[in-house]
Structure formats: structure tokens, C-alpha cells
Amino acid sequence: MLKSLIYRLSIRSARHPWWVLLAASVITALAIFASIHLPVYTSRQALLPQDTEVAHRLNRYLETFGASSDLVVVLESAPRPVLESFAHELANRLRTQPEIAQATDRIDTGFLHDHLYLILPPDQLAQLEQGLSAAVKMPKISLEGLLNSAASASTSEKPSGEVDLQKALIGIKGASAFVREWQRWLDEKDAPAEIDFDPILKTVGAEQLGKGYFSSHDGKMLLLFVHAKATGEDFETLAPFNQRINQVAAELSKEYLERGLTAPHVVLTGLPAIEYEEYIDIERDIKLVIWTAAGLIGALIFLVVRSVPWALAIFIPMGLGAVWSLGFAYVAVGHLTIITSSFLAILFGLGADYGIFTTSQIAEARRSGKPLIEAIGSGIRDSFSAVLTAGGASLLIFGTLSTVAFPGFAELGIIAAGGVLLILVSTWIVQPAIYALIPPKIRAKKTLSKTIKSNRKIPRWLALIVVILAGSAAALGIRSGLEMGFDYDVLALLPRDSKAAEYQRKMVTETDYQSEIVIFTAHTLDEIRRISEEAQKKPSIAKVQSISSFFPIDAAQRVDAAQRMAHLAMQPALVQNIAGLNQQGLDGKSFRSIQRLLQQSLEKIEAYEEQAFSSGNQPLVQGLEELRSGIESLQASLEKDPETARLRSEALLRALLAVATDGVEQVRDWTSARAISPTDLPNGLRERFVAGDGTLAAYAYPAKSVYDPVNLDELMTEVYQVSPEATGFPTTHQVFSKAVVSSFSQGTKAAILVCLAWLAFIIRSPRGILLATLPLVIGGGWMLGIMKLAGLHYNYANIIALPLVIALAVDYGVWLSHRWMAMKGEDPIAITKDAGRVILLAAGTELAGLGAITLASYRGVSGLGIDITIGLMTCLASTLFIAPAIGLILSSSRKK
């Protein structure tokens, strides 16, 4: 019945081609109009299930605070003072831009120092008060006296096992950092202008007390955190944001060069930069892929059929169906994503198959002497079963993808299924009209008698061995595919030369910051304080940023202590002693005392090192060894040129005394010390940590890469122990990764079952079913085996390769089975030769489309193209070389 219907439709189309083309043109115009207005959702959020709790939590945060991730500007390849001045100027300029809400180059150290009494640990605050009290009571002192007292204390002190090892290790690291700074003062050509306290403070966990810049572990990279004013994560938001930062940075770099300064190397990274780069790459690749695929497919068809009319009869229906699929996407889904937007090239290759099958049958009908119109109807009718079987299988396979939970795959399934259906409709209705208007010339075909060889040429037992070996290899490949690892690293999908990805990895390994942050929210200071304290204790978290330290529980007692210290700092003896030491300087006698003290320190370190080694405390041994090595290098420098070393050391001493004087002045200001509230915070801190409705936020930086599933699960387990309401990229990424893998497993199983059930329902012949499915199964197994041998892994982009290969390559076996049943009694090898010409052309068009995809710079797209290309080639090889052996076995069974 369907064959009769399609026969009548094709005859009517061939008799009234202009009406058909007019209707097709109207539909195409509507589809083009829809595609122009079809939005492309570039945000990864568009791929996620929106009805999950993690999505709701993230959306609530976005509504309250805005963007969930900062863009990170990395500065490097310039002297540290230049990096600092550039970072400061860049942050100031960025804050004035309309697209930018915040630009943070460092902590607000002024506010922090003014309120140091609120954030210092209680024991350090007590030590500071004790030190001030002792200093006030101290009589007039001399540097020589202090050095002698230190030497006496060093001689009398004995190693003890009763020490706080953690505090000891921090103290040792702090001493090593100071020794390195001292060495810097000796080594530099000109005496430094000021002490670089940042490395020293960082080793003791008090880097916020320094200049406050966000830096790498070695201090050679500085980081700026830039927060967008707009809350969206789509391209329309990210593009002006990224472009503005690049523009301002480029202008400042140009000014630095004009001033004769070294302009730092500037790189944008973090999720906003990565997603922006991702969209740019994919958009460029899609244009390249679509036009390249269309050109390659058209050229291939023309080269094979060597007829422009014949090529147009195949290409135009395919192209129209692909364009219609965009209109269908507008109606059915309403948007494209970074996954669905790249599928058009695959539709080109798949859609050409149907036109190739139908035109080959039309040509055969014309060779038999039928008139053109009747030949068109007969060709469409005779190929209908094969095209319906293959197209229906592809449609159902894509349809099963639409049932999975992961929206990225589900939407791909809907759009692809609709695209296949529309290409089928275009092939059955539009192609007859085009063929009738520009009928290709038909060349004579060799008769079967000239091509058929005896099927005795290959014995049945040999064919059986070939099939068994091929099947065994496929089974091993399937097993390998089940064991193949999954690469959870999203950064690996970006182009190989991606700077954003490169520096994102550097942030994980070389800093305590990365943009994939965990976000905690609370409505009270007590709750955010609890969250911050508990989160900082978790091994999976490197650092926590929070304002809770400004609001300690014992704020009243701290204020009292600060005011007492301010009173002590007012005593004149304190400043007089510091001024006296500065006036004395470092004479030769004191310099030699320092050298003796360093030697005594070495002897002491050796004793401590031996004790630490005996107790098996390797970190302590390493710390002591580093300190010993630093002191030995310092001694060598002091002895090499004693007078120069004395003068440099004296300059360092005076710099230390100047800092001490400033510190006393700052403590004097604590006479007005008081507890504060969130409204007293500077604008930068308040905007980042306090929302308009009073919601408080804390930001946790993971210690390890969140793209490793083990690290991610460990992180999220500990994060949810702190607060079940946590949000941020790691929370959604965990759900995202599990949804992808789960959907892949569900979609692949469903695709295989639906495909086999459909083929069985349509073909109904056990032999025909075997001939249609075995090459596909064997080719799929080979594909997985080759991927395993090549060291490939599943990732978020190529994980759908196997279902796509099934949908694309099912045509080969179906057409072979169709020809095998139509040419009953003929030699299977000869049948394969007859069908192989059409199959080769069909496979060639698909490979041309997929070959274009492999040219993409975005590795997620090109990797998918490579994997599908492998699958198509293995399925083609299986169809052309293993299917004849299967046919020999089946034909022998049939004859018996």
C-alpha cells in the first residue's frame, strides 16, 4: 500500500515539477526565515537538565549575585613591580567599563590593616599585646645587646620533642623565606627600595597582610578577577565582556611600551573566557564544516556520476531537507545548542544516501526501456523499501536519543530525527520533480553475465572462517569499548593551542585559585562563619574567601585588646628604642655578631634535623634542610664581600625598622577600634560577598582539578558535608558528567534495540536481517577496538559517536540486503559488486561530510568527526568484505 502511494506521489511530482518546486521554495523560504531567528544557546547551562536541584540552586544564586564565575586576567613575563603597577592600573580602568561590575587586583589591604585586630588569630593577637607590653618596659637597647641575647638563647636552648609540629614547620618556612629575602638584598645590582613581605607572609598563611596581590606560588604571575555586570552565560553577554577586557588591556599595554616599560603578557582565562573562546571556535568551525561538507559531497557526487543533472538530483533534495530541518528545529525545540548546531554537516552526508539509492533505481528502470515519468515512479517505488528501512532506522535511532535525560542529547535526537524525516520527504517528492526537469543521460550498464563469477571460487568453509574471525575481532572490540575510559576534562575539548585552557590548568597547578569555584550562601553571619571555618578544614579545598573573619564571635574582647595595645603604642619609649636602633645602624662588630649567630643557627638546625629524621617527620626534615641550605648560601655571600654585604644588610635592617615604626603608628589608630557590620565593608568586598537582600556568600577554591571524577566526587562529598545548599560549577559539572554517561549508556542500548527491531519488522526474512545487521555489528565492534588501540577515550563530545555511526552506517547493510533479495539466485560476490558501487558513493558522501568535521579546530567537534569516520570506514569495510562471506554462507544454506 505504501509503495503504491509513494509511486503515485512520485509520478504526480514528475508530471507537475514546477508546482512541486514552487511549494518547496515556499517551505524553504519559511525555513530560512525561521533559521535566521533561531537562537543558538551557547551556555553550557542550556545542555543541563533544568529541573534538578543543582540547577535551581545555581539559578537562585545567579538571580541574587549575578555571574557565578569570574574571568581571570593573568599577567606574567615582566618584573614584579611592573606586574603590580600594570595590575593596579588595569583594575582601575576596568572598573569604569559598563560591562564590568567588579575588577579585583588585590585585597583591600588598607581596610584589612585598619581592622587587623578583628582577623588575627587569638594567639597571635595575644602575642602582639605581650610583645608591645614587653617592648614598652624595655630600657634603652642596642643592636649588639639584642644579638648577644639571641646568641645566649640559642646556646642554652635544647631540642625538645614537645613542640607543635605544624607551628614549627610554619616557623621554619617563614625563616627560609626571610633568608631568601635577605639574599635578594645582597644579590641585586641596586639595593631594593623596600622589603617584599609577600613571600614571607604567604609561607605563614598571612599573605593578606602583605600587598594583597593574587599571585602564583612563585610570584611570577599575577591574577585579576573580573566580574561581569550582566548575569547571563550566553554569547551575547560573554562577547562584549571579553572584548572589553581585551581592548582595555591592549590599550594599557601600548601605553606601557610607549613609556619604555615592559608590557606584561596578558591572557584571559576562567570559565567566562573559556566559554567565549569555545563559542568563537565552534561558530567558525560550523561555517567551515558546513560549506566544506557541502562542497566535498557535491564534488564527490559529480565526480562519481559524471553528470551535473544527476548530481543536482541527489544534492538539491538533500540540501532542501537539511534547510527544512532548521525550520523544524525552530518549531520543535526553539533553539540550537553547541551540540545541535554542528549536526547539519552530518545530515548532509546522511541525506545524500537516500538520493543515491533512489537515483540508481531510477537509472536501472530507464535502462530497462521504461519512459522517463514511469521510470521515475518505478525507481522511487523499487527503492522505497530499502530507503524506508534505512531512513526509518536512522529516524528511530535519533528518536530514542530524544528520550534520554540529558537535554543536550535529547534535543539532538529530536532535531536529527526531524531532519531525517524531512530529507526522506524531500527525496520522495522533490527529487522526482528535479529528475523530470533535468533528466541525466543514462550510460549502458554491463550485464550481470559479464560480472558474475562462480560462487565456488571461495569455499563455504573459508567464508565461515572469515566471518568467525571478523566476529571474534568485533567481540574483542566491543569488550574494549566497554572498558574504554572517559575523559571528563572539558578543557581537552578546546583547540590544542587554546591559551584559556592552558592557563586554566596553570591556575590549578601553580596557584591556589581556579575559576571552577564552589559557592556557599547563608543568611546570617553565624552560618557563613561556620561554613567558612568548616570548609577551610577540608583537604579538597585549597582556599576559602569569606568576610566572616571580620565578624569574630569575640569581637568585643578583641576591641578591648586593640584599645589596650593602642595605649601601649602611645608610650614614647617604644618609638625611641626603634629610632635608636635605626640611628646605630649595623657596624662591623654587630655584623660579625650576626655571622656568629648564623653559624650557631646552623649547628642548632643540624640537631633539630637529626631529631626530625629519627622521628620520621619528612616534611620537617625537608623544611630544615631548605633553611640550612639558605643560611649556607647567605654565609657565602656575607663572606665574599663583607663590606658590601654589611652595607646591604644595614639597609635591610633600616627597612625593617621603618616597617616597625609604621606598625606602631597603625596600632596607635586602634584607639577608635570597634566592631563592624557588613554595611561597613568597602564597596568591592560588599558587592562580592553581600547581596542586595542580605544574603552572604563564601567562595571555596578546589585543591585539585575538578575534571578528574575522583577529585570531583571527593570535593563534592566534603562540600555537601559543609552545606547541602552549595552551588557553583563543580556542583553542576558533577550532575552534568553523570547525566552524560548515563544518557550515553541508555541511548546506545535503546538505539541498538530499536534498530534491530525495526530491521526485523521491515525485512522479516531471517537471512535478510542477518545480512543487514551483521556488517553493522561487526563494523561497530571494529570501530571500538580501533579507538582503544589508538588510545582514544570517550568524552563529552564523542560519546554519541556509536549511536551516530549506527544511524549513519545502517544504510550499507540495508541496501546490500535489499539487492541480495532482489537478485535471488545470483552470486553473492556479484551482488556485492553491484550494490557496492552505490554503497561506496553513499559512504563517500558521509565520509566527505565527516571528513569536513575533522578539520575543525575545536577538538570536541574534530574528535567526534574522527571517531565517526573510523566507524563508517569499519562498517563500510565490513559490508564490502565480510558481507560477501556472510552471503556465501546464507546462499549455501538457502540452496540446501
Give a written overview of the molecule:
- A hairpin with a 6-residue loop joins strand 4 and strand 5 (222-228).
- With 896 residues, this protein is mainly alpha-helical.
- The model is unreliable at 447-456 (pLDDT under 50).
- Among the domains are: 68-109 and 216-228 and 241-274, Alpha-Beta Plaits; 111-208 and 557-672, no CATH class; 512-550 and 676-728, Alpha-Beta Plaits (2-Layer Sandwich).
- The two termini are 33 Å apart.
- Strands 2, 3, 4, 5 and 6 form a 5-stranded antiparallel beta sheet that branches. The chain has a 4-stranded antiparallel beta sheet with strand order 9-10-8-11.
Oligomeric state = single chain
The number of helices is 32
- Overall SS class: mainly alpha
Major β-sheet profile: 5 strands, antiparallel
Helix content: 55-70%
- Spatial extent as radius of gyration: 37 Å
In one word, what is the shape?
elongated
Tell me the β content: 5-15%
What's the N-to-C terminus distance?
Answer: 33 Å
Number of strands: 11
What attributes characterize this protein structure?
896 residues, mainly alpha, Alpha-Beta Plaits, 5-stranded antiparallel β-sheet, 4-stranded antiparallel β-sheet, 32 helices, 11 strands, 69% helix
Task: Offer a concise description of the structure.
The chain is mainly alpha-helical. It has 32 helices and eleven strands. A hairpin with a 6-residue loop joins strand 4 and strand 5 (222-228).
List the helices and strands and how they pair.
Blueprint: H1 2-15, H2 17-36, E1 40-41, H3 53-65, E2 71-76, H4 80-94, E3 100-104, H5 109-114, H6 116-119, H7 122-137, H8 143-156, H9 165-187, H10 198-203, E4 214-215, E5 222-228, H11 235-258, E6 265-269, H12 271-305, H13 308-332, E7 336-337, H14 344-367, H15 372-401, H16 407-437, H17 448-451, H18 460-483, H19 499-510, E8 518-522, H20 525-536, E9 541-545, H21 555-569, H22 572-584, H23 588-614, H24 618-640, H25 642-668, H26 683-689, E10 696-702, H27 709-722, E11 727-728, H28 729-763, H29 766-789, H30 801-822, H31 828-853, H32 859-895
Parallel strand pairs: 1-7
Antiparallel strand pairs: 2-5, 2-6, 3-5, 4-5, 8-10, 8-11, 9-10
Helix pairs in contact: 1-15, 1-16, 2-13, 2-16, 4-11, 7-21, 8-23, 9-24, 11-12, 12-13, 12-14, 12-31, 13-14, 13-16, 14-15, 14-16, 14-31, 15-16, 15-28, 15-30, 18-29, 18-32, 21-25, 22-25, 23-24, 24-25, 28-29, 28-30, 29-30, 29-32, 30-31, 30-32, 31-32
